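In the laboratory, one determines a bound structure by crystallizing the protein with its ligand and collecting diffraction data. In a computational setting the workflow is compressed into a single prediction: the sequence and the ligand go in, and a structural description comes out. We illustrate the idea with NAP.
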Amino acid sequence: MKIVILGGTGLIGARLVVLLERTRHQVVSASRRTGVNSFTAEGLASALEGADVVVDVSNSSYTDEAGAAEFFEVSTLNLLHYGAAAGVRHHVALSVVGTERLARSEGGYFRAKALQERLVRESGRPYTIVHATQFFEFVRSIADRGTASGVTRVADVMIRPMAAADVAHAALGIALGRPHERVVEFGGPEVASLEEFVWRDLLRDDDPRQVEADPLARYFGAEIGEDELLPGADATLTATRFADWVARRRAAR
Ligand SMILES: NC(=O)c1ccc[n+]([C@@H]2O[C@H](COP(=O)([O-])OP(=O)(O)OC[C@H]3O[C@@H](n4cnc5c(N)ncnc54)[C@H](OP(=O)(O)O)[C@@H]3O)[C@@H](O)[C@H]2O)c1
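The predicted complex, in structure-token form:
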């Protein structure tokens, strides 16, 4: 099969491209850095020519609602349109567990992701939407966003984060299988509070910031319940624990 990875140079995309290069399938890494712009459609027709599967792991560089919404709307419509013309048989899109719940109370990024998901669902094209929980690699940005005067305040919620490498493996399995025509959820092996994971993440660099769960703090603008970032009971749980991920990063240094 020919498999095109949109966002193939990103955190998840680069890992997915490496995994696919070890298979017998033809893989094309598509992003602006490789001459493909899904927003302007530059290079899209040629990248998708003869493709069987498209995996969209791109991301918007804009987090404000207008910018993110414009990116995900135009980019997704272009991908579906050019994909249909090229005869793509499976459109896979990576999104976030709880997107619809987050979109309900937050006007920015998650509403744009919910729009992306709706366009894929309603396109009439064979699809699977992969929902992943927070990446371990993303926990530090959550900490940085909530820090003021040496104290990091985070939303008082539970999370089940996962390693980017495991997200790439999950996306690989989906890309090589049949379209599910629904959302398929993945999460990490451990559940703990966001406060606990932020604290563990800061500890790995001896970062002296204090961490507090603040019942009034929002999660990227969203007001959400304690369990709303967690996947459902049918989610596939991946293997890498946070401590394994830290150990692997240390060994790779
Ligand atoms: N962060 C989390 O914890 C989390 C959790 C679950 C799901 N997700 C989802 O996972 C997805 C991937 O996230 P990520 O962290 O891997 O993203 P990332 O590292 O920011 O990578 C984004 C990719 O998109 C490409 N891109 C951006 N604009 C483009 C354009 N106009 N045309 C073509 N390519 C473009 C970038 O390459 P160029 O700059 O070269 O164009 C890059 O390869 C996102 O959709 C996100 O919603 C994230």
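Residues 2-252 form a domain with the Rossmann fold fold (CATH 3.40.50.720). Keep in mind that any predicted model is a hypothesis to be tested, not a measurement.
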